[in-house]
Amino acid sequence: MVCQEELLIERVCELYEKISSLETLKPSKDVDMLFTQLVRTCMPPTHIDVTKLCKRVQEIRCKLIRLCGEAEGLLESHFSAILASHQNPLRHLNIFPYYSNYLKLSHLEFTILKEHYTHTPTNIAFVGSGPLPLTSIVLASNHLTTTSFHNFDVDPSANSKALALVSSHSDLSKRFVFHTTDIMNVTSALKDFEVVFLAALVGMNKEEKVRVIDHLAKYMAPGSLLMLRSAHGARAFLYPVVDPCHLRGFEVLSVFHPTDEVINSVVIARKYPILPTHDSSIVDHHNKGFGPIILPNKWSDIETFNPVNIIHGKNIIEELAFEDQLGS
């Protein structure tokens, strides 16, 4: 008898073959249908460990994540252009098919952030903001209404489209800054931010992701927070996984794995403060840009913050329920 895990992997591989054979990943009926099927296949909670899959499936997963990233970028660019055609773009954000997911995810991230940072941050950096910076927009509009957001993206056309969305808004136009640069070229400026958000698709594989995280660990201010998006179970076919052992130089504070249509897991970590210099072994290790404290190497070793019973005794996901379903 074939187990559920084998059936899931077989289905994912079938969808990969269909998606990879498409002439273009620009939004269309066929593209939308295949990616909706892929997301729905990977959405149900499972205990699958993608690191233990055979080499062939591992290679398919890596290629699939890149295809998902390309399709997501094209989808956001498409809707950013549509929104910019309106006189007041931010009043029409709900036309984006996954807007309700961003509302939920942003509220979840804000709730987790409040647990570990009691003050309202003055400056936040979002790395990999893209042409439709919905996280920054939702956080700035609904939760952090006095905070300045510095949005970093390597693509000048993405920043141009994003700027067009907020330039006519009397408030956000003053609090949003767009930087067209590779985050690997940003050094001392990173110390200006109390919180840094790292988009899920900045670093498409483990090596790329670790390189970015190590750079942030070297230049972020001591004690500042890093918010990352990861994936868990079968959802790791859609997005890269951030393991605690990747977060050298950071103390992992909390990990949360949603079980609804919010696909991304949320990880929050704190940059280690500068340590006393009386222990030469600690100093030598810290000077290499890595934290001197041994980190846990499994999710189960971390005491996970679960945002349940925060809002009037209700589960936050229930409190934030929306009528729009994924793919609608």
UniProtKB/TrEMBL annotation:
InterPro entries: Nicotian_synth, SAM-dependent_MTases_sf. One of its GO terms (biological process) is nicotianamine biosynthetic process. It catalyses: 3 S-adenosyl-L-methionine = nicotianamine + 3 S-methyl-5'-thioadenosine + 3 H(+). Keywords: S-adenosyl-L-methionine, Transferase. Its EC number is 2.5.1.43. It is an enzyme of class 2 (transferase). One of its GO terms (molecular function) is nicotianamine synthase activity. It holds the Pfam family NAS. It comes from the Eukaryota. The keyword Amino-acid biosynthesis does not apply. Belongs to the nicotianamine synthase (NAS)-like family. Synthesizes nicotianamine, a polyamine which serves as a sensor for the physiological iron status within the plant, and/or might be involved in the transport of iron. This is Nicotianamine synthase. It comes from Rhamnella rubrinervis.
